[in-house]
Fold LacI family DNA-binding transcriptional regulator.
Amino acid sequence: MASIKEVAALAGVNRSTVSRIINGEGSFRSDTKRRVEEAMAQLDYRPSAIARSLAKSHSNMIGLMVTYYTGGFFGQMMNQVQLELDVQNKFLLTAQGHHSADGEKKAIEKFKDLRCDGFILHSRYLSDEELIALSKTKTPFVLLDRYIEEIKQQCVTFDHQKASALATSYLLERGHINIGCVTGPLGRVSSQVRLTGYKNAIAEKGIALNPDYLVEGDYELDSGYAAMAQLMSLEQKPTALFSTGEEMTRGIMKYCYEQQIRCPEDISIISYDSVNSCRGLYPQVTTLEFPISDMAHEAVLLLNAQLKAQSREQAQLSVSPRIQEGNSVINLT
Amino acid sequence: MASIKEVAALAGVNRSTVSRIINGEGSFRSDTKRRVEEAMAQLDYRPSAIARSLAKSHSNMIGLMVTYYTGGFFGQMMNQVQLELDVQNKFLLTAQGHHSADGEKKAIEKFKDLRCDGFILHSRYLSDEELIALSKTKTPFVLLDRYIEEIKQQCVTFDHQKASALATSYLLERGHINIGCVTGPLGRVSSQVRLTGYKNAIAEKGIALNPDYLVEGDYELDSGYAAMAQLMSLEQKPTALFSTGEEMTRGIMKYCYEQQIRCPEDISIISYDSVNSCRGLYPQVTTLEFPISDMAHEAVLLLNAQLKAQSREQAQLSVSPRIQEGNSVINLT
DNA sequence: GTGAAAGCGCTAACAA
DNA sequence: TTGTTAGCGCTTTCAC
């Protein structure tokens, strides 16, 4: 690919003139401009983003780290982030955390090697301390769906506890008392928080918690299937269910189908959903939307603000929970 | 971030010595090496991939272009590609074609601006001519799921026609005669090819094609739902169905559920599936696997070969179709 | 309005 | 085994 040098030579001007014309800085004789533009066209010239990065000590690249690419959830985030960066003519770099602290560390290292101007991190395995330490570094970053008090101005969060309570209340308000809850791996804080929301809503109604109704899954389809089997083997079966992950819900629905358990007649279901995946279930499951696109959007705005060293309203950075009604919940009252 | 200069200064050596130590080229006094390593550690030094790219006129970046990020299909590809590039310490850059020739052009432009060493393109909208023209360029690339005779050594393909015929035959062999087919947008070659496979299989059995059984969809859930409604309104309903896309199949199943059409008792279904998404349907739908991960794997190998200017066996580059049995097909014989 | 020259952080001859 | 020097392709002072 042609370099600026060749363009300059062909146009009979100095490299710096070409550079100025590319960047539209200053003014030039129209004749000069024309000659340079012709030369660029003729050589099919495109400035090297790499060389430019080096010269202006910023890369125009943003790193986006997620835990895994597959499953649709990531696609939503990435799509949103890419869309906005496209407008700003920035490059998006992605990396997977691979479900481990080490993987996340490596991903960030990669971003640093490429001198990304900023990161958006969906970090699950790095400790608060590590992230706080990272924040002392000069490269700005934003945490997606994670809250750390000390760096809260870099966090875009969703109140999972409140959201889970909302979902549970939705069932309670419709007369359900015996409500099951299928959680994610309880080793993760994010799963714990959802469970807490469920517990709170139950307690608020003065209902005693039945530990049999709590089943731990791993967010995968099979675990939902197994959880449902377990719940349906109980003597006192729940009349409703809160599933904290859409894939698990698919497993739950599959079990229902196979065992001829009717939803919502025999059991009502409400489920977390981040990618509108429950829309494809039959019956259509009522969901608690995990607004990952909105959050990704906020993350980009926030990162941009950090890059420009502006400050932004804290208020907008937490997205509110919303329920999307399907027909998987029956009203018992 | 510290530069090589600072490391050199701190260690009391020349920059090139540091460079050599980083790259493990040549041999050094153990004392020198130790001092340099200490300096690097102390400054938390990481070489700039950008500066390095410039110096060694190759970037270690690979561009992956897809039509869209959402939907899971892309995640599979990306995951596979990233995994392999990680091993080789290469950077992955991604871009969306946004369902237009212009979008695809822009994506490639972006890769070029960053001086990617090679591309993997899932191109749908650029013409054969444009792609052939691109192949005259110095940057090597591989076409994913697209065949162009003139540059076939750069193509990783899947025989959709054969695959579709296989799926249709699967139904025929089980005694089905009245087989519906839900296609993608017939404006796209990729949809046409699948339809041709279906037609061929039917014709081979000496069965006349019933045009009523052909319904055009757009690969989205809703279009599957609508297609099913249309097919079920026919006087002579099909006993089986070949769906050329998993999302459409979800719509089809949803319609069945709502209308109390039993699968497979009332209708048998076989479906394309690229992301194992039909596994979550109930009943579990028999699928024709679209082996996108395998293909992505092949694409990386092929691209690597091109980068090293090696040649590879053509034979491996076409992946064979495979059927994964569920319980959505009934045997009428 | 344009050119000359230095510099971004690194690598790669060529010497020593 | 190590240093010197030039150069990768661009931007950015500082002159003129």
Observations:
- The mean pLDDT of chain A is 94.
- Chain A touches chain B through 50 residues (CB under 8 Å).
- The first helix of chain A runs from residue 4 to 11.
- The first strand of chain A starts at residue 61 and ends at 66.
